[in-house]
Give the backbone structure.
Amino acid sequence: MRIAAVCVTLVCLGSACSLFSAPVQSFVVEDFGTRTPARIAILPVANGTLYPEGPELLRHRVEIMLKNSGYDTLSGDRIDEMLKEKYGITYGAQLANIEPSELAAAFGSELRADALLFTELFEWDRTRIVDRDQVSVGAGFQLVESASLTVIWRARHEVVRHLPGRSLFDTVATDSGDYELLIHELLRDISQTLPRRGYLDDPS
C-alpha cells in the first residue's frame, strides 16, 4: 500500500484571496501497474451537499483530468442512459442501492469498462466571514477494478479559498467561476496521486 500526500498553500496579496488545502488522503494498490485500466466509467457523482449544480460540474472536470492522465473514458450520456434503463438510476446517490458487483459486471461486459470511478461530493459551500467569503469544495474518489472489485486507487481532498465578500444585493448566490477555480485546484492535487497511464505503459 502506498500513501501519498500533497499540501498546497497559496496567498494572493493583490486580490486579497488565499487558498489553504489540507494534505490529500490517498491510496494506490501496490500492483497498480498490472491492473492499470484502459477505459474508465465515471459514474454520476453522489451529492452530499445542498447544491445541485456541483455534481455535473465536478464530473465533467474529472473526465478532463483522467484524459490528461492518459485514460480513456466512457461517454457520460451512455453511462447515464444505461443506469436509467437498467436500474432506474437518475442521480449519483442512488448507486448505493445497487451491488457494486452488479454494476461492474454490467459496465464491464456491455460497455467494456475496465474500472468504475465512484465519486462523492461532500463539500460545496460559501460562507460569509466578516468582510470575506469562504468558499470550499471537497470530494472523495474510488477507482474499482471491474473484474475483481478491487479498489485500485482512492483519494479524498478539500480546498478552501477566502475571497473578498460579495454585496448583500448580489443575486448570484453561488458564483460558478469561484467553484471552477476550486475544482481546478482540487483536481490538480488529486491528479498527483493517480499514476499516469502513459507513464506506466512506457517500457523505458
